[in-house]
Amino acid sequence: MQIFSYSVTDLTDYESPSDEILLDEQEVPSFAARVAREMLTAMPELKLKGMCLAVYNREGTPVVIAPLDPIQ
Predict the structure, then answer these.
(1) This model's pTM is above 0.90
(2) In which order are the strands placed within the sheet that holds 2-9?
(3) CA-to-CA distance for 63 and 56, rounded, in angstroms?
(4) What is the pLDDT at residue 19?
(5) Distance between CA atoms of residues 36 and 67, nearest Å
(6) Burial group, residue 65, by CB count within 10 angstroms (0-12, 13-18, 19+)
(7) Cβ-based neighbour number of residue 31 at 10 Å
(8) Is the CB of residue 53 less than 8 Å from the CB of residue 69?
(9) Which distant-in-sequence residues (6+ apart) come within 8 Å of 5 by Cβ?
(10) Neighbours of 28 (CB within 10 A)
(11) Which portions of the chain are predicted below pLDDT 50?
(12) Strand pairing partners for 6?
């Protein structure tokens, strides 16, 4: 298990405050996809805004970037 941080970002100008979560490394992609889906369901106004959920390792390197909605 490792500590990862995650935030919502547009990968250019905006990044939300981050939260931390304890996960196995192989769980990170499914965690990111699930949270992205849940966020878009809870906040549909984020649709078509180019937002992603970025998950970073302890060193701050992005591990997974999951778009909040599909790329058209």
Answers:
(1) no
(2) 19-23, 2-9, 52-56, 62-67
(3) 5
(4) 95
(5) 7
(6) middle
(7) 18
(8) no
(9) 18, 19, 20, 21, 55, 56, 60
(10) 20
(11) none
(12) 19, 55
